[in-house]
TrEMBL record:
Coiled coil: none annotated. Gene3D superfamilies: Periplasmic binding protein-like II (3.40.190.10). GO terms for molecular function: maltose binding. InterPro entries: SBP. Belongs to the bacterial solute-binding protein 1 family. It comes from viral metagenome. This is ABC transporter substrate-binding protein. PANTHER family: MALTOSE-BINDING PERIPLASMIC PROTEIN, MALTOSE_MALTODEXTRIN-BINDING PERIPLASMIC PROTEIN. GO terms for cellular component: ATP-binding cassette (ABC) transporter complex, substrate-binding subunit-containing. Pfam families: SBP_bac_8. Keywords: Signal, Transport. The keyword GTP-binding does not apply. GO terms for biological process: maltodextrin transmembrane transport; maltose transport.
Length: 425
């Protein structure tokens, strides 16, 4: 994985797909995605150049609660999607030999992917999905708030500890009295949970160990310490009182309103949210930022960062010609030219070896340094049970903040429920 994170791509070579029959007559395929068709015109232009007569029905995914409800409703209705293009944590549920197209029968360029990435979309040794460019988050410091606090010179942004972060939290509380907070927190649903999980990394708690997705290892002294810390933030008024009913959309708006001193964020998000909220009149100015690693707990040497990336899966239809069209759509969604566009636009890392240029964006470089120094946190995004597993943390946080579960109880319940899900394969 580290190799993936050092290399970026700009190669525009379109690799090949195995020869297969062309569809006769008009073929229609359904593409499910949170992206609008217009937003990935660079994909559709390539596809339509080869298949001008294929009808593509673009179906917008409902992400109101961050679940796979749109995909599952289509399958349950007997009218399933043919291609699912979206967050790997949702798509991975369908990267399964019983449902998905075996891409080894259709794509001849699979060796262009980094092996570590390809392993994540294999089931029983066969490739049943694709992984798009990887986005990594950092701990973004709001320089406007930092400067206003007159932080002591011996506290460095790039070397924060949990202890001095708590001290900063009390300073924020005392200065802004419930109008600004030291960090953001939300627990309305599972959407955006990778933002929250980086706090577990800060204490050295691993969700999975050594790539073993048969059980979670989060219920540990480090995991309990993380939950105690989150409860402390809530009890002391260092995060919003309504955190247990806030969503990641609320979190994004509060961040753009300069409400958080330091929190998890992706470099590509800033321009979008600043522009959107300026145009809507929600904010009247932007602010400078700096990306550093998360504050670290006692005894922790490195704090790996969480990622979010695109997954693509195609349905096995039983029709060789239609399968070919589906495979070609998947190819164009993730070939060299398409990855190059997304790498630049989203400040991501390519998953193809042929795409080779690093970005010069200063924020991307700051996050890249975090990765090189600390590594990546394993959320298990590409595991087929991830979508079910991620349903288990936000209820624990809700009950933790409401006083219905202690940190120890929350971790024990999480472990029991997650391991039951992981055992049911």
């Amino acid at each position: 994985m580290k190799r993936l994170l050092v290399i970026l791509v700009i190669g525009m070579i379109a690799t090949s797909v195995m020869a297969a029959p062309k569809p006769e007559g008009l073929v229609s395929i359904k593409v499910l995605s949170a992206e609008s068709e217009a937003n990935i015109a660079f994909v559709m232009d390539q596809f339509r150049a080869e298949y001008p007569n294929v009808k593509v029905e673009w179906i917008q995914e409902d992400l109101s609660d961050g679940s796979t409800k749109t995909a599952q409703a289509m399958i349950d209705s007997g009218d399933p999607f043919d291609v699912y293009f979206g967050y790997m944590g949702r798509v991975s549920q369908y990267i399964d030999a019983k449902f998905a197209l075996n891409l080894e029968d259709y794509h001849s360029d699979l060796n262009d992917y980094f092996p570590e990435i390809l392993d994540g979309v294999k089931r029983d040794g066969k490739v049943y999905g694709l992984a798009g460019p990887v986005g990594a988050q950092g701990f973004v410091i709001n320089s406007e708030m930092w400067d206003a606090l007159n932080v002591p010179a011996d506290i460095k942004k790039a070397d924060l500890t949990i202890d001095n972060f708590l001290g900063l939290g009390r300073a924020v509380r005392d200065k802004w009295a419930g109008k600004k907070w030291v960090t953001g927190m939300f627990a309305k649903n599972q959407s955006g949970d990778y933002l929250i999980f980086n706090w577990f990394a800060a204490f050295g708690a691993e969700k999975f160990k050594g790539g073993d997705y048969s059980k979670t290892t989060l219920n540990s002294p480090a995991g309990v310490a993380t939950m105690k810390f989150l409860k402390q933030l809530y009890t002391e008024g260092l995060i919003q009182e309504e955190s247990f009913i806030l969503s990641d959309d609320d979190y994004a708006q509060y961040w753009a309103q300069s409400s958080y001193l330091g929190t998890a964020w992706f470099p590509s998000w800033s321009d979008y949210y600043f522009k959107t909220f300026l145009e809507q009149g929600v904010i009247d100015h932007t602010f400078d930022t700096e990306y550093v690693r998360f504050p670290k707990g006692s005894g922790v040497t490195k704090v790996p960062t969480c990622t979010s990336y695109t997954g693509i899966v195609g349905r096995e239809t039983g029709d060789k010609a239609k399968n070919t069209v589906i495979a070609r759509m998947m190819f164009y969604m993730n070939n060299g030219p398409s990855q190059t566009v997304r790498v630049i636009k989203d400040k991501n890392y390519a998953t193809r070896k042929s795409v080779t240029t690093k970005l010069t964006d200063v924020y991307w470089q700051q996050v890249d340094k975090i990765i090189q120094d600390n590594g990546l946190y394993d959320l298990g995004l590409s595991d087929s049970k991830f979508a079910e597993v991620r349903m288990e943390m936000f209820p624990r946080l809700q009950n933790l903040f409401r006083g219905k579960e202690s940190p120890e109880e929350a971790m024990a319940i999480y472990e029991k429920r997650v391991n039951a899900i992981l055992a049911d394969r």
